[in-house]
Automatic annotation (TrEMBL):
It comes from the Bacteria. Residues 1-19 form the signal peptide. The lineage of its organism: Bacteria, Pseudomonadati, Deferribacterota, Deferribacteres, Deferribacterales. This is ABC transporter substrate-binding protein. Gene3D superfamilies: 3.40.50.2300. Keywords: Signal.
């Protein structure tokens, strides 16, 4: 099967900066060109920077990423934008002399692509958009003050195991008991007896099939989903998300600083502290759960 990808070249010229040197900016997303990239480009353009963008999307395919890296080798580049941990890691290693700004959904220090968030000791800086588990649990607590939460492990990865351990640690602060369920397909036989729905909630880690999702719905309790697409499908009631357009705009601030002469390694990595929700109101109504108005006002997407 032939893999095809498109190179999108966008020219933007500031109204009164014709004499300024054109900045060549490479944009590489591990995913596809999306709202984060839109926010970044808009942020650069709004600063009247005479910029030429070369935009690539890898569609989460390592083979495509490698081909794009080879092509980027041949391009002029004053700055590189990376979206995704794999893209950022590959770019930092491959282009150590080119300043890089990144957006990653995993801790860049823990994943060893920078030394620290205060001083990266590399040619890169950026934004960490990982969502703290505490933030997710507080949003779920705002819907129902649960005393028991079931951790539905749909991915069974090291990351989900780490999240389970963190949830167990947080239990003493938020005052809940935690139960791990790996065999989600046969979820009903794992539930505690007697099962008190009024004091229970669930957290769905990862993604599940439609058959498994149907079984989760039968619990008739509020479910916080790690993946917003699970809420869209009705297998969860709420999910915490980042406004990626806003993240892109914030990253453009760092890019502008680098293009004006600041050293990327001296610009601290920023951690996003403002989150939005995806809410499935139809699912809330089905289980007779009221979603507080203040949560709906922060929703990025509401499914009715």
């Amino acid at each position: 099967m032939r893999i095809c990808y498109t190179i999108l070249i966008i020219f933007s010229f500031a109204c009164f900066s014709y004499a300024a040197e054109t900045k060549h900016i490479v944009i590489l997303s591990w995913f596809n060109d999306g709202s984060a990239e839109d926010g970044f480009r808009d942020g650069i353009i709004s600063r009247n920077i005479d910029a030429r963008f070369y935009t690539f999307g890898s569609n989460s395919d390592m083979g495509v990423l490698e081909k794009q890296l080879a092509f980027i080798d041949k391009l002029p580049k004053d700055l590189i934008y990376a979206n995704g941990l794999l893209a950022a890691s590959a770019l930092i290693k491959r282009f150590p002399e080119t300043p890089i700004v990144f957006i990653v959904e995993d801790d860049p220090v823990k994943n060893d692509i920078i030394a620290s968030k205060w001083r990266t000791m590399t040619n890169a800086t950026g934004i960490d958009v990982s969502i703290p588990l505490l933030e997710e649990l507080l949003e779920l607590k705002a819907v129902r003050n649960f005393e028991v939460i079931y951790f539905l492990d749909g991915s069974q990865t090291n990351k989900s195991a780490e999240k389970f351990r963190e949830m167990k640690r947080l239990g003493k602060y938020l005052k809940f008991d935690l139960f791990l369920i790996k065999d989600i397909k046969n979820i009903q036989k794992h539930m505690l007896k007697p099962f008190n729905k009024a004091k229970s909630a669930a957290y769905l880690a990862g993604s599940v099939s439609s058959e498994t999702g149907t079984g989760i719905k039968k619990l008739n309790i509020p479910v916080m989903a790690e993946k917003p697409e699970m809420v869209v499908k009705g297998y969860g009631m709420i999910a915490t998300v980042v406004d990626m357009y806003r993240a892109g705009r914030l990253l453009s601030d760092k890019a502008a600083a680098v293009l004006s002469g600041e050293t990327a390694s001296e610009i601290p990595v920023q951690t996003i502290r403002y989150f939005r929700l995806v809410v499935n109101l139809a699912e809330a109504e089905r289980i007779n759960e009221d979603v507080p108005l203040e949560l709906l006002l922060t929703a990025l997407d509401i499914i009715r």
